[in-house]
User: What shape does this take?
Amino acid sequence: MRLILKNCNVMGKEIRDIYISDGKFCAPYGESEADRIIDVKGNLVTPGLVDMHVHFREPGQEYKENIETGSKAAARGGFTSVCCMPNTSPVVDNAAIVESIIKRAGDIGLCRVYPIGAASKGLNGEELSEIGLMKEAGIVAVSDDGKPISTAGFMRKVLEYCADFDVPVLDHCEDKSLSGGAMNEGPVSTSIGIRGIPSASEDVMIARDIIIAEYLGLPVHLCHVSTKGGMRMIREAKARGVKVTCETCPHYFTLTDESCVNYSANYKMHPPLGTQEDVDAVIEAIVDGTVDMIVTDHAPHHQDEKEIEFSLALNGIVGLESSFALGYTYLVKTGRITLDRLIEMMCHNPSSLLKLGRGGMNTGDDADLAVFDVENEFVFDKNKMLTKGRNTPYDGWKLYGETLYTVMGGKITYEKLC
Amino acid sequence: MGLKNKDLLGMKQLTAEEIMEILDTAKMMKMVIESGNKKTTHLQGKSIVTLFYENSTRTRLSFELASKYMGSASANISTSGSSVNKGESLLDTARTIDMMGTDIIIMRHNQSGAPHFIAPYLNASVVNAGDGMNEHPTQALLDMLTMYERFDTFEGKKIAICGDIYHSRVVRSNAIGLTKLGAKVSVYGPRTMMPIGIEKMGVTVADSVEDCCRDADAVMGLRVQLERQKSSLFPSVSEYARFYAITKEALACAKPDAFLMHPGPCNHGVELPTEVYDCDQSVINQQVTNGVAVRMAVLYLLMARRNEL
Assistant: This one.
């Protein structure tokens, strides 16, 4: 497949044509040699985005999502690479499941899917899973996401053992003895009578992880950080040289716990939506470089698990198809950060932490890219999503940054049909 | 006048004017109850269903009697003995009841927001008879009726509420309703049972039972909801009784003509010593009568709104 994209506004810096051949960016060739020529009409072209935190639910929970629908949703969001979390059924805690996921994703061929292995067997928080063998099979990190790595002692073991294999450890920070509620604890939870989760539940675990990482001199990555206190501790730890990295999600810079007042479970996730102070702190941390990545924590659920009583509904929202537009609209268009910084968080940084080798746009690099319309407003419509999930809080939101095309390895994986 | 909304989901959704209209209507309904002939035709030809996912004596019976006194057909469903035990979802159950031509569904549920969740899907009006830890509006309305019979205005009155504030839907509804009418609400209980940010609801958190009751016009005890406690929030019943109960001495800190209320059922000797429960200032038994009157008023006003549409 030889593809030419004409009039590309590459990273908002230069208008040029992009030539692709055999899955790679290449030197210009004659238009008559192209299989397809697309005029992207000066729209924004970025490297293919990387989301290092998604849940594709396969194997075992295909009624929520599978690798195919997840890949389609990723492509529609401009993503060409995703890392899928291991809390499937069965759990990704051995090489055979890792291989099967990679095989399935390759056969589907719409997105590069990098599995993350479980840190503990069956996510039990007690015994190490076969991390070395899973690394050979293709995992790019370990995590017990959905659950925290339960005890400080086991966290130490995981960090040490993973260091032998150069496998990053991603921790979901939550002290279960403090959490146990369904939304952020504060005046809103008190007023509407929903059991609260204190921000201290996340902060206590962030503090613990920083202390252990600092003591051992080993790296740790903190998932979906949402609190003011967490960002402050990570900023301080980085300043004194602790090898800590962190990610946040679009919902933590666009929504507060006030959204929960109507008991819609599309505002229910873990960690929970915080206060305006938390949102301001997350944005500050994005601006000053404390935040390394923006991820979606794409967590599709079936309607029967979300359109029920708030406290009984499952945690999580889908995010792949709204992430770039939310980042662009709320961070870049508002002048808080540059487009370069957004792409650093949504492509280069996750690629570099997990050694994915993504994000290059030079001759010889894999041809992964996305084309976005950042000039015209569009209305986000949940019914147009390609994920199986409909659990988004962004239905009807007016945003900038609609995906027009996504190309992965020289193949068009998404194309907006007018 | 009349009620604005199809449903009565909570005191949050009522204006001060609507609350006063319910209380004034309830005063008239009370005359019906106290007359020898407890029969009106206000709800004739209408049907009312109570759907209770939690146990109840007072609330359920008073709703049932209220609808019967006003001539409606009424039926009851509880979770045991219904398809809820077969795993039917709340929404499916509610829609099923709705499709049988029900005018008003009165629901108690252990999940906060459950009535808010089903109401938009239904033609029937939904009355919240208690949802989780959120609200219990008709309890607050009957408490307010009990106060309104004893003072003309809520403006500037001090209401003391002591006990398990965290788990109490009665407190939330009372705090919202009373502050809307200009009363001052003071609360006290173990810190482990005091929800974060309760001050934002316009109430004052006191330092002790005595401090809470000081110069109060009315004092309300709350049931310690042992069934709602996931973990021990106080060490023992006797320690609770020693430090957090409304004693005779604490009640003496209130105004001389202050009266004592309790939503029931009461754990005697825990939140209230029995001699306090039975003391002259106690209006706990009158509250029960007012429960029927207030529920008659609510059903009447909701049905009047439905008839207008």
Q: What stands out?
A: The interface with chain B takes residues 180, 185-196, 198, 262-263, 304, 307-312 of chain A (CB under 8 Å). Chain A has one domain: 48-359. Chain A is about 30% helix and 20% strand. The first strand of chain A starts at residue 2 and ends at 10.
